[in-house]
Design goal:
single chain; about 50% strand; mainly beta; Jelly Rolls; 2 domains
């Protein structure tokens, strides 16, 4: 079910999908860069469910959604298909006057963006939620409670000096090269840059996806600048 198809705009406005869907399918006429997405379930009682906050990079949202569970089909930098599951194994149920709301921003006016809502025969038992975190420019290190989440995507990982993962009472420290090696060993999905269509080398891991099931705390020590993280969990 096509819910959005536009060229020549820089933002979509609020796209309300009132039919129950369980996933979104994105298509673009060019590679994603700084496009952002806000996504939420609009409830009739005002108790909305925020799936991802405003200013979430669309490519980060897609990367976490398909990581080890799907695929991004790209041809000459155009996204032919990328399905992002919203509900766990089914559609998000909607009552009367409720909707899944999509807001795209920072779009490139020359590009075309298409979004389809995907229906499923079952009702989802949970919803995938995303949360953004940042180590600020003036912070040397910062720790984050990630117990409720399963995946994290790092941006500006080349600014990181050390990563600490805490599992219960056990704390383990990794240098960036050790952490990248562990990420590659845990999932081959990190070895390939879908958007560039090439195998990545250890010199271009400014962004990195890492599974964090069982991790309670992540502490990031950085060299300079900011380090951004997008977390994904199922609630």
């Amino acid at each position: 079910m096509e819910v959005y198809n536009k060229t020549g705009v820089t933002k979509s406005g609020a796209v309300r999908v009132t039919k129950a869907i369980g996933a979104l399918n994105f298509k673009t006429s060019a590679a994603l860069t700084t496009e952002t997405i806000k996504l939420y379930v609009e409830r009739s009682n005002g108790d909305n469910v925020i799936i991802c906050e405003a200013d979430t990079l669309l490519k980060d949202f897609i990367d976490l959604s398909v990581f080890d569970e799907g695929a991004i089909h790209v041809y000459e930098s155009q996204i032919q298909s990328a399905i992002t599951e919203l509900g766990l194994n089914g559609v998000i149920p909607l009552a009367s006057n409720e909707a899944v709301v999509i807001e795209l921003d920072n779009l490139v006016a020359l590009n075309t963006y298409v979004v389809n809502g995907i229906e499923f025969p079952a009702v989802a038992s949970a919803i995938h939620l995303f949360e953004s975190k940042r180590v600020l420019d003036d912070e040397k290190r910062r720790e984050f409670n990630v117990r409720a989440y399963d995946l994290v995507k790092f941006n500006n990982f080349d600014k990181v000096r050390n990563v600490m993962l805490q599992y219960g009472q056990n704390r383990v420290n990794y240098t960036p090269s050790e952490f990248i090696a562990l990420a590659l060993d845990l999932s081959p999905a990190n070895t390939y840059d879908t958007y560039l269509g090439e195998v990545r080398t250890t010199s271009n891991y400014a962004s990195l996806v890492f599974p964090i099931i069982g991790v309670d705390i992540i502490e990031i020590e950085k060299i300079k600048g900011t380090v951004d993280m997008l977390l994904k969990g199922t609630f």
